[in-house]
Specification:
Alpha-Beta Plaits, 2 domains, 8 helices, six-stranded antiparallel sheet, disordered N terminus, alpha+beta
Length: about 300
């Protein structure tokens, strides 16, 4: 009897180690091939692929907007055992919305939001948020089929942009966080203090759960800003008041997801003014939000 117990124990242990909790991550090379474009593994094991709309030339209030400022579409995969959760934010023109939506739905991809991020931009761009859960290669194939009905480029830009000509040190000091220069856009990704979850899993920042703030230099000491605050219901109006009192325009307020916990709202904004003045206004708004303290 004791011998049988000794024999069964290692077999049970081996079975446990090969169960879903210990399943290997998906083969991201296969996912990239199905998607038509490769990406990179980022924070939290998220495989994220960018789909910037480099084909679009957009201006707002006389400012020519760079692709990385507001038109960097993306999809991100979070491993769940041998499967994955996918989320994304696709940048589309008005004519592309319904053909892409129908194709994604046919492929089992959920549409979780469609809306604007900016006001007065020409041409107008819309943003389609998507979600799904299952075999990552099948999800990637469905997303590729949908995006193929748009003019979204599947190739990467051939040339690099010049670094951001902006007072990065001054902005960092005011914001209380360190930004990152990405193709001439000075960017901040700021996590909330407590995680946002979907299907019981905490969403890392690359899944769209972090506050995003972008500065685009517009000459001299000025910059245009945009991005989105990730807010609890109780934070929405305090942040609106903080932004407006600093001359920062609120351009959209909406959801991006369907089943997140706790429920959060995404607030987009725009201004073009002295960069340090705008950083001060953004810092005032961040003070109204339960954000993670800088490390």
């Amino acid at each position: 009897m004791h011998a049988m117990i000794r024999l069964i124990t290692p077999l049970v242990t081996a079975a446990a180690l090969t169960g879903p909790a210990f399943a290997a991550n998906p083969d991201w090379n296969q996912v990239g091939q199905a998607l038509g474009k490769s990406g990179k593994v980022q924070t939290g094991g998220v495989y994220r692929v960018g789909f910037p709309r480099t084909d679009l030339k957009v201006s707002l209030d006389g400012v020519a907007l760079r692709t990385g400022f507001a038109f960097g579409g993306w999809v991100a995969f979070l491993p769940m055992g041998g499967q994955a959760m996918v989320m994304g934010d696709l940048v589309l023109t008005q004519e592309e919305i319904n053909p892409v939506m129908r194709k994604l739905e046919e492929g089992g991809i959920e549409i979780t939001a469609v809306h604007n991020h900016l006001l007065r931009a020409q041409p107008m761009t819309l943003y389609m948020h998507i979600g799904g859960h299952g075999d990552p290669v099948k999800l990637a194939s469905a997303i590729h089929a949908g995006l193929a009905l748009s003019k979204t480029p599947f190739s990467s830009p051939a040339t690099a942009s010049a670094p951001a000509d902006i007072d990065m040190i001054g902005i960092d000091k005011i914001m209380g966080y360190k930004g990152q220069d990405s193709g001439g856009i000075y960017q901040f990704g700021i996590a909330r203090a407590k995680p946002i979850t979907e299907e019981g899993m905490a969403l890392p920042g690359p899944m769209g759960a972090a506050i995003g703030i972008n500065f685009q230099p517009t000459g001299g000491d000025t910059a245009a800003i945009t991005g989105d605050f990730v807010l609890l219901a109780s934070e929405v109006n305090p942040v609106i008041r903080a932004l407006q009192s600093s001359g920062i325009e609120v351009t959209a307020l909406h959801s991006h997801m369907l089943d997140e916990q706790p429920r959060v709202f995404f607030m987009h904004f725009w201004a073009n003014d002295n960069a340090l003045k705008l950083a001060t206004g953004l810092r005032t708004a961040l003070d109204k939000v339960d954000v993670k303290k800088p490390e």
